[in-house]
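Figure 3 (text version): structure tokens given as input.
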């Protein structure tokens, strides 16, 4: 994997609830924030990375730290429903508004995009068509997306790991739609709000196929209820194939059976958006990235 050696200081914001974090650890051995930390340290050797759980009542930055003191904030996936009024969603949205106000560039996936959307005045809803489970198919960049550095290297249509039951209903003012597909209209976007900048995707470039399989198993009942599988055994059979491809990514028979290509099976290509965000930050600097024209 190519990397960007740096002395960046990054903050990972993990908005999973404590129960969701533990459930994910039991399933795949790590929380969403721990997955992000692992990827960031591989993409940016030497970076200093902190983690915060903004949905938690006692969440706090490390002593002496401020949001403005970080080079970037990364927002992970989460089972929170941002259209529900709960203490957890209020805290998470408030945290994201503070990130925008601090002028610290941010990146997020799945619920991260939804959090940034709601914080900046947009809206989120349950998926209007169907849950996207395992993979988002045939994602197509918009005209703006084809020219945007977030999607550099992505082809005219591509698949990506994804599992979500909510989606962006309306992007806030000051946003640019970068990609979508038949199931989910907003698959990638840039959001500018209150002096801050967010680049994000609805899918999960950060997760490997083992985590895709784990997510399928955790949400098996939801997938059956949505009509995507006849029963939990169907979900398990599919998850086993995904797991097998994770162990042997060169198996063309499994990739063919699952309808996947190197955009998913090649980790370097799969991580395109995270790498592009970090490389833009390295090339332009924090203030330069904020100043780039939409």
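Below: residues designed for each position.
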């Amino acid at each position: 994997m190519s990397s960007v050696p740096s002395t960046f200081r990054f903050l990972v914001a993990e908005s999973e609830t404590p129960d969701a974090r533990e459930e994910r650890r039991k399933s795949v051995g790590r929380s969403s924030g721990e997955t992000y930390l692992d990827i960031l340290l591989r993409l940016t050797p030497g970076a200093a990375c902190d983690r915060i759980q903004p949905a938690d009542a006692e969440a706090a930055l490390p002593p002496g730290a401020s949001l403005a003191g970080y080079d970037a904030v990364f927002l992970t996936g989460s089972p929170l429903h941002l259209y529900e009024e709960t203490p957890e969603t209020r805290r998470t949205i408030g945290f994201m508004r503070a990130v925008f106000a601090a002028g610290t560039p941010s990146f997020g996936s799945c619920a991260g995009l939804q959090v940034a959307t709601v914080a900046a005045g947009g809206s989120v809803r349950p998926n209007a068509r169907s849950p996207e489970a395992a993979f988002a198919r045939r994602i197509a960049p918009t005209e703006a997306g084809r020219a945007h550095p977030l999607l550099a290297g992505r082809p005219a249509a591509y698949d990506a790991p994804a599992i979500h039951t909510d989606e962006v209903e309306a992007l806030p003012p000051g946003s640019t739609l970068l990609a979508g597909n038949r199931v989910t209209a907003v698959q990638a976007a840039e959001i500018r709000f209150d002096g801050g900048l967010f680049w994000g995707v609805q899918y999960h470039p950060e997760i490997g196929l083992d985590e895709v399989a784990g997510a399928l198993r955790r949400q098996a009942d939801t997938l059956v209820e949505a009509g995507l599988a006849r029963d939990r055994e169907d979900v398990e059979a599919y998850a086993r194939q995904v797991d097998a491809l994770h162990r042997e990514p060169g198996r063309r028979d499994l990739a063919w059976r699952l309808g996947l290509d190197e955009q998913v099976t090649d980790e370097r290509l799969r991580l395109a958006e995270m790498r592009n965000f970090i490389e833009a930050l390295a090339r332009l600097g924090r203030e330069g990235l904020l100043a780039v024209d939409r």
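Residues 272-291 form the longest helix (20 residues).
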